[in-house]
Amino acid sequence: MAIIHRNPPIYLFETTGIYPIKEMITVVEKLHGLSNYLKGNSFPIIDSTVAFDSLYSEFFDIASKELGPLELESDNIRICWGYVTNKNFYKGGIHHHKRTSTINAVYYLAVPSTDTEMEGSISFYNDLRKEIYNIKPKPGDLVMFPNYLLHQPHQSFTDDYRISVNMEIICKDVWERKEVT
């Protein structure tokens, strides 16, 4: 684990789970092709395998370890969301998750090689929408951050997909009681 930004806190983890990455990518690509994107930039990952549930469990365990015991709200849902982009398909923009979560995470299944560090990366912003940090993830990275943090995935201008799995936890506010040292 590495905290890579202190205020607001942004964490970067290499996951410990052994995940069937190729199979997970196939599932997400198929759902991406079926999605109509009328309600946003991502789509729910409905899959009968245990891979995505195991990934969510690891995210939950990491959040619990780093932020203390989590008191889940009754509307917390264990679900993963797919996000896919390449040079031909991009739905992005600076946003936060204040209405849908307390803790957010993004797990990277595929990140194409690109000409610049910005392509395929994720940027974080202050309230004035000034970039405060940028991460060029690699497959297997898990980035965790607070719901209020403005962020944006950047398009990659390749034919290859940048594929991420987004996850959320709804719990009593942990950011007020967690001082990052």
How would you describe this protein?
By secondary structure, this protein is of the alpha+beta class. The chain has a single domain (2-169), classed as Jelly Rolls (Sandwich), CATH 2.60.120.620. The chain is built from 2 helices and 10 strands; from the N terminus they run ββαβαβββββββ. It has helices at residues 21-34, 51-67; strands at 2-5, 10-14, 43-44, 80-85, 103-110, 122-125, 131-135, 141-146, 150-153, 162-169. The strands form 2 sheets. Strands 1-2-8-5-10-4-3 form a 7-stranded antiparallel sheet, covered by helices on one side. It has a 3-stranded antiparallel sheet with strand order 7-6-9, with no helix packed on it. β6 (122-125) and β7 (131-135) form a beta hairpin. The longest helix is centred in the N-terminal third of the chain and has 17 residues, at 51-67. It is globular. It starts with a strand and ends in a 12-residue tail after the last strand. The mean pLDDT is 91.
